[in-house]
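dumping the sequnces here before i forget
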Amino acid sequence: MIATKLKEKLGLGSILPRPTSTPAPAAEREIDLRHEEDEALVRRSQKGESAAFDVLVERYKERLYATVYHMTSNHEDANDLVQETFIKAYKSLQSFRGQSSFYTWVYRIAVNRTINFVKRRKNRNQYSLDDLDSSIQSDPDLVEMQSHATPRREVGLNELQEKLNEALQKLSESHRAVVTLHDIQGMTHADIAKVVGCSEGTVRSRLFYARQQLQGLLSEYL
Amino acid sequence: MDCQKTQQLFDDLTHDRLAPAIATQVRQHLADCTDCRVLEQRTGRLQRLLALKRYERPAPEYFDDFLSEFHGRVQAEARKIGWWEGVLGRVDDFLAAESMRVWRYSFTSALGVAAVVGLAWLGLRQTGDPVVAAMDQTTAANSSLAVAETTLPPPHSTPQTIDTSLPNLLSASSADYQPASVGSVVLVPAPAHTDSSTPRYVLDRLSITPASYDVPSVHF
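..and the predicted 3d for all of it:
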């Protein structure tokens, strides 16, 4: 009892194991919550409704995973970092005032954590790559690239995947972050500026220099 | 529109985020400028190449246990958390809040200054500041001098103790002394280094001059 109260005071009490006696209503409740906006779910979570935070986790886990994965090129590290990101977000939820969207806020946590992590493990790059989805074979960009008169027209997909990851890992952490968010994730400059915590001009400048470096590293595929 | 401005707008042109008038200007510049056109084509190819990374993704069932793992980690963290970690976490959250962003750097700077001052103070206490050490030495010296003045004997007390023993032995041997002579040469010792005043040191009482002091006078 005392431990429960202490955990609640520390902001950890609301995610205690849920009662299993009434599973059906809880599941229905979760289905309802899935249609709610982020702001409403955040407010519910701040009031201690852990199911609302679960919906936020479900909503953003894959996108966050993809961002972190492309920055680390490591499957296991990406999973750990996304888990840590959500734990940090959950614990800090009371301090979230809604001045930015939840999406931007949680992305900022993830990107900052990943940048710190990548800086720490700088000298031990270990790739653990996800499999390529088989639908890549029919991607028009890949088809065009293979038909284009590049020096590496007969490029194997696995080799291309490795080269892309190697090239990305050679960028600085801040350059890698903007390239990942813009060219892979498709975020706008304004959103990236909010996530990374700099001006839009800085984002454009970082993108420009990162692309210059990547064009040098991947020249045989361009 | 110049090259630099055009190159900054490549992304916006690609994603149709430009106003029609500006988009027309950019396209016109690209039609006229070979360098910008080549750069725009290479940038486009690079973006399409990077976009292929979207096909790198884990199997669909990979995320099935994500939520339960999240709950497990939160509970594990709640179990191992100490009260100080809770307090630090709260402070961290407080400073991380968007309303506190302005004060974050001030707080961090103040904390840093306090840490430096604290460390410097500790360092001074352990190694000793030259000024403080000098002050300490002066104080110690003054106190020891004060003690010495009260306990030490008068300045001539020590020589007097030797004065009573050694000179008696020497005076006995000096009575038998005769000037040395070598043939017609008489070696006369130089006048003894004596003083009529009260002797201060043992050697002042010697009736003969030490050998090393002898300056032989040669008479032909």
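DSSP finds eleven helices and no strands in chain A.
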